[in-house]
Amino acid sequence: MKYGHFDDPRREYVVTRPDTPLPWLNYIGQEDYFGLCTNTAGGYSFWKDSRLRRLTRYRYNNVPYDLGGRYIYVNDAGTVWNPGWKPVKAELDSYECRHGMGYTKITGSKGGLEIELLFFVPLGRNEEIWKVTVRNRSKKRKSPRLFSYQEFCFYEALNDMTNYQRTYSIGEVEVEGSAIYHKTEYRERRNHYTLFACTRPIAGFDTDRDIFVGIHEGLHEARVPSSGKCAGSKAFGWNPIGAHEIDLDLAPGAEESFAFVLAYVEQGDRPRFEKPGLINKELGRQIVARYAKPGAVDAAFAELGRFWDDLLSNFQAELPDEHAARMLNAWNQYQCMATFNLSRSTSMYETGIGRGMGFRDSNQDILGFVHMIPARARERILDIASTQLSDGTCYHQYQPLTKKGNAEVGGDFYDDHLWLVLSTCAYVKETGDLSILEEPCGYADREYRIGADGRRAGAGGEPAESLLHHLELSIAYTMRKRGPRRLPLIGHADWNDCLNLNCFSTEPNESFQTAGVVGNSQAESVMIAGLFLHASREMSALYDFMKRPEDANRMLAQREEMLAAVESAGWDGDWYRRAYDAAGKPIGSKECEEGKIYIESQGWCVLGGAGADDASGPSRGRARKAMESVHKLLFTPKGVLIQQPAYSTYHVELGEVSSYPPGVKENAGIFCHNNTWIHLAWCQLGHGDRALEYYLSICPSAKQAEIDLYRSEPYVYAQMIAGRDAPCYGEAKNSWLTGTAAWTFVALTQGILGIRPDYRGLVVDPCIASAWKGFSATRRFRGAEYKIAVKNPKGRCKGVASVKVDGEAFDPVGAAAILPIFPAGTSHRIEIELG
Ligand code: BGC
After folding, report:
1. Which of 16, 73, 189, 200 could form a cystine bridge with 258, CB 3.0-4.6 A?
2. pLDDT tens digits, one per residue of 484-507
3. Residue 481 in contact with ligand 1 by CB distance below 6 A
């Protein structure tokens, strides 16, 4: 591979040259403080919410794309360079970037000087560390000067990048020793500031960008690093930055380490000022002192390593396929953490100001995260639920800082609420914790006060509606919002945000997602119907577990009603239709000229149990038929196309889906997220060979041989790979923040490996490629460790023939093994043979 390779034992991707086909990104931070960090040290940082608490600046769609970040300039006897290559782009003697779990380490060398930069966010802290190690590898004494550089953002990122008539006049800083305090807007309404400090004495500083960089210069020719001396500038308005000068003197072979700390500091109840006009720096000083202690930085980094070791040990597997193994054991789970934390808000494609947390996105993200930190999943489920409205619809997005729905986007996406059922059931299966269902979360359009027990209560003191109430309401809402064929109405769109059947937009300046009136529309979605089949069955199983058989049956009766509609109005002859437009015309049907077959309804109808082999009547076996149509019409070696044939023109009655050029995004691109439903559907049908083949078709690790075409990071899933109608067929975009992460984890672990948490125990029901001789996995479930070894001597895909638990024969239930819930803290050997 031209640009790098995996270092699996260390769970790192090693980039070996800086000029990657696109900037290759990593994230630092795992709880509240986050940063983006590319392989050339580009990116920015924020606390909790990249729109409302952005700490450092970044200019999207810059030239080149990735410019601005955590830069260290070196001036070594007049030669200026950066260890991460950018922005100066001086030729390096060596370069390496190791993206790891929660950290990025970049090492560059030139002229006998080697500089290693390590970026990470210590656990539980609201600061990031830039550890710098400088080594003199030459035979001569060296006296290099290093300059740190980053540009402060004024927190509200949209205003920061648009409102210069104000922002050019408000920037303020204070400097104390090595600490630069960015305190813009602190004088009036903010109770927080940003600190940028060094653990080592500095030889100078700058805080005014015009002085450090220049007015007419770019970052690659910044004035101070070239001159070799900081000017001590104090920003007043314009653009405050943080820059330190470190003068070193290194004997041959000597090395020195120190760190920069960039911190977000909230004052809480402390006095805001220590003297008139001077901010209270008590907390800032404590932070600097903390990391100035010898060994403190290394200890924080080691703690981060242990955190990830422990998290990932919840699920580890040895698989015959190296791509599947490395994705599962490290990168997929790691990406699940990123999507859980950031939803679709902040990446190289999401500017962090456009989208907050998505209702449907975040619910799905939980599916890939809940096994790691169930307590955080619990909190998130309740947060999401409380952005639902009392009629059942939901705010489509909300801001993580305020946890309030975004009014500009609004609601009326008629799939959103159903995903809450999936996330909640996944949580209860993982933990057995039914108490979440009783949590009073309430609705976004109702007034509550916090009761004596700290919980939300209504005006009369009655508890706010519980999570279970939300789930019931969600099911009821879909049942209520049905159209002439008894299929669910679609509203603004369903999972496919671009299938806007009520939008009819001819005005280029309006949003496809929010335009149009959904009120009286009759446009229906077969995909939502399929999702409902699954969600109502999930609810039924939940009620069974709660020992409420009547409610369980009530859910099943509603499911039957929906199934009848799916099989009558949803079936097209060889596959499931996608929808009916507002005029009642089918979409995703042989009757259509373009967009004859869509992937989503095949996935969800099959996963929801439509057309099953054991069905009676004409629907029997339709699932298989639909999947064969997928194979024939949508599958390509680079992934499954979302629909075919691509729309060649704009259809006002379909909306954004037809606005994209053929082959990209929702118009016949390979939308990796929904590929995973097909992987699961193949597993459901017992077709392990297809499941693995399809999985590998979108697996980034398997793309290394064609990386100049694929372009995106080979270690995380991308939202979209261009389909065969596009001139760039095979090129990936929108990497990192995609539902592909969570769903691939589900497809791989629960579908292919067949290891799935259930209310009554851990199910093991693999559906593997027939060529696999077996595999082993360690799964922590409800505190106990299951060491699972699966053998496949007969080359089967599916079917558990025998099970041993701790050496003793164990009776499998049906064709799957439901393993008991063992006491927490115990470890058990599970041997399974397929046959
Ligand atoms: C959105 C998802 C949506 C998908 C398909 C993504 O960009 O975040 O909510 O389901 O596109 O349209």
Report:
1. 200
2. 999 999 999 999 999 999 999 999
3. no
Supply the mean pLDDT for the chain.
Answer: 96
The string of pLDDT tens digits covering residues 573-582 is 999 999 999 9
Report how far residue 520's alpha carbon sits from residue 538's, in angstroms, rounded to the nearest whole number.
30
Whether the CB of 349 sits within 6 Å of ligand 1: no
CA distance 51 to 56: 11
**Average of per-residue pLDDT across 119-139:** 98
CA dist., res. 695 & res. 740, Å (int): 11
| Dist. CA 11–CA 327, nearest whole Å | 10
In ligand 1, the atom with minimum distance to the C-alpha of 497 is 12
One-letter identity of residue 819: L
> Is 158:353 a contact under the CB 8 Å cutoff?
yes
Q: What percent of the chain has pLDDT over 90?
A: 94
Q: What are residue 764's DSSP bridge partners? A: 755, 817
Token pair in block for residue 21 = 């086909």
- pLDDT computed for residue 646 by the predictor: 98
Q: How far apart are CA 626 and CA 649, in angstroms?
A: 27
Question: Would the CB of 415 count as within 6 Å of ligand 1?
Answer: no
247 is an active site residue: no
Task: Report how far residue 580's alpha carbon sits from residue 603's, in angstroms, rounded to the nearest whole number.
Answer: 18
Which DSSP state fits 568? I
DSSP 184-213: TTTTTT--EEEEEEESS--SEEEEEHHHHT
Residue nearest to ligand 1 atom 5, measured at CA: 496
Burial 769-794 (b: 16+ CB within 10 A, else e): beebebbbbbbbbbebbbebbbbbee
**How many angstroms is it from 671 CA to the middle of ligand 1?**
9
Q: Is the CB of 666 under 6 A from ligand 1?
A: yes
Active-site choice (365, 494, 497, 765): 497
Q: What is the 3-state secondary structure (H, E, C) of 601-624?
A: HHHHHHHCCCCCCCCCHHHCCHHH
And the tokens for 312?
């990932």
- Closest CA to ligand 1's atom 11: 497
pLDDT number for residue 638: 98
Q: Of the given ranges (403-417, 534-548, 795-809), which has the lowest mean pLDDT?
A: 403-417
Question: Would you say 394 and 417 are in contact if contact means Cβ atoms under 8 Å apart?
Answer: yes
Query: How far apart (Å, rounded) are the C-alpha atoms in residues 443 and 274?
Result: 43
Which residue bears the tokens 């470190």? 246
For residue 736, what are the β-bridge partners?
none
What's at 591, amino acid-wise? E
Look-up of token digits 């100066």: 88
- Using most ligand atoms within 8 A of CB, pick from 345, 361, 396 the residue to mutate for ligand 1: 361
Q: What is the DSSP string of 779-814?
A: EEETTEEEEEEEE-TT--SB-EEEEEETTEEE--BT
User: Which residues lie below 8 Å from residue 635, measured CB to CB, with a gap of 6+?
Assistant: 641, 694, 697
The two structure tokens encoding residue 125: 């802290």
Element (H, E) at 120: strand 113-120
Distance CA 183, CA 196 (A): 11
Q: Whose CA is closest to atom 9 on ligand 1?
A: 361
Long-range contacts (CB closer than 8 Å, 24 or more residues apart) made by 554-559: 555/475, 558/475, 558/479, 559/532, 559/533
> Is this model's pTM higher than 0.85 or not?
yes
Cα 63 to averaged position of ligand 1 atoms, centre (Å): 28
For 627-657, the pLDDT digits (tens) are 999 999 999 999 999 999 999 999 999 999 9
Concatenate the DSSP letters of all residues of 311-354 into one string: HHTTEEEE-S-HHHHHIIIIIHHHHHHHHHHHTTSBSSS-BSSS
How distant, in Å, are the alpha carbons of 327, 602, 603, 743 from that of 677?
A: 18, 9, 5, 8
496 lines ligand 1 (CB under 6 A): yes
